[in-house]
Amino acid sequence: MSTRRVRQRARAKPRRKQLIDDILMAGRESSAAAVMFHSVIAERAGLAATDTKTIDTLLRLGPMTAGDLAHHTGLATASVTSLIDRLEKKGLVRRNRDTKDRRRVMVEPILERITAGFAFFGSVRAAYAKLLDDYSDDQLDTILDFMRRSSQRTREMTAEITANPTAAIVNICRRAGD
Question: Using CA atoms, how far apart are residues 131 and 124, in angstroms rounded to an integer?
Fold first, then answer.
């Protein structure tokens, strides 16, 4: 390998490390902003952020069992049952017997009660779509891949912590160093 190539690689590594550090910091900033944003929205609606994100999960994925909700959110089944009870009392979800298997109970959002938020979130979606206009299709593919993979990893870590609160944090920290 030429001396020139060795120098280029030596310069590239610090740049890559800096980019990764900057992306991880931007992720923390984005996460904090998103948590605050959704907390304020939830508070205005008299809900907790977990409530609104559970409703969002049902809107995105459709009716599902409490167990499926626990799986998709990473929350403990007991927590999900209490959460569904709260949302049902507020008239935001309902439990229905599965038409194919009467033993199963499906949880579904009550759209008539939730539609007021659709217009607001439509404008939020439009604002983010406008940001994405600045990126090429290849860049959008990369962003989409990262978002899907990071969301999956976050769900896995949430499930780990839910399943074993003390050991999970140690395992997550250990894995982060791998």
Answer: 11
Domain that holds residue 149: 135-178
85, amino acid identity: D
- What confidence tens digit (pLDDT) does each residue in 142-155 have? 999 999 999 989 88
Task: Check whether 169 has a pLDDT greater than 70.
Answer: no
Residues 6+ positions from 93 with CB-CB distance below 8 Å: 55, 58, 84, 87, 107, 108, 109, 110
pLDDT at residue 178 greater than cutoff 60: no
Residue pointed to by tokens 């038409």: 99
Residues sharing a CB contact under 8 Å with residue 41, sequence separation 6 or more, in sequence order: 52, 117
Examine residue 98 and state whether it is found in any structural domain, yes or no. no
- Predicted confidence (pLDDT) at residue 118 exceeds the cutoff of 80: no
142 contacts: CB under 8 Å, gap ≥ 6: none
